[in-house]
Amino acid sequence: ATMPPLLSAIANAGRHGVLVKSAVVMERLGRVDAVALDKTGTLTEGTPRVTDVRPLAESGLDADGLLASAAAAEHPSEHPLARAVVRAARERDLRIPPAEGFASSPGVGVTATVGGHAVAVGAPARLSGGSDDGAAVGAAAVAGELEGAGRTAVLVRRDGVAVGVLGIADRLRPGAAATVASLTALTGTAPMLLTGDNPRAAARLAAEVGIGDVRAGLLPEDKVAAVREQGAAGRKVLMIGDGVNDAPALAAAHTGIAMGRAGSDLALQTADAVVVRDELAAVPQVVALSRRARGLVV
Ligand code: ADP
Ligand code: MG
């Protein structure tokens, strides 16, 4: 028997490395007319590297001490930035002390108790408290310098006091700009970028791939609001993301696609389709496959 077009399209999508979870999803993919992209782990490779380790002079920590305590707090986290911090500590052969009471907050950062100290690691603009002391002012200056250079700055606090800043850099996925161009051609609209990262790192990367609509500093619920806003304007939004922080937006979108290799379990479960092989270019290909299966010319 010949396979129904949507089932053949699912098989074809599989050959392109995309797991489409149902025939309904395969059909819906061809209807999307707007795209929202996450940054870290989606447009970028998601294997960022720590480029700067900057303890504050008054913290009493040296670079290794700062990195080791940050790595201890980040150790249980699956976030790409957390893995970068742990990797950097290992590369320097640092002993990563045990941590207790780990907690993470999507789009913000992590907290844990390390050697009797409460350590917090995360977005400088989001870690609250103590923002008027001298250490906080010093940390903000370092974070501003690193962000100005296009890095993601991560603040480290100990017992409520800023002790240092880490600079982290990620690379664009090869072909990211071409994928953005294909998605623009297919939907007739340029994708928008939704990220929890700082506006400067986001704007720099967006310019490199040809995205003009950039929303930065977003919490998970802000990503949902951006997707809903488009939906309310009558658009069928395709959301592409990888993180726990993307899961609500993946669910709120007309169709959600998760990046599979380094994607969080929650994102993979929530999404309608998963890019199993790590190629972003497969996304416009499956949209085109869906349109062909529905008998629309691409
Ligand atoms: P994106 O939306 O680009 O994928 P996230 O929402 O996951 O980024 O993270 C947004 C910001 O929150 C990061 O740029 C970082 O400053 C901070 N952050 C989140 N999780 C962590 C973590 N585990 N360690 C350090 N910083 C974190
Ligand atoms: Mg992400």
UniProtKB/TrEMBL annotation:
Region forming the signal peptide: none
Entry's localization field: Cell membrane
Family under the similarity heading: Belongs to the cation transport ATPase (P-type) (TC 3.A.3) family. Type IB subfamily.
Official protein name in the record: Heavy metal translocating P-type ATPase
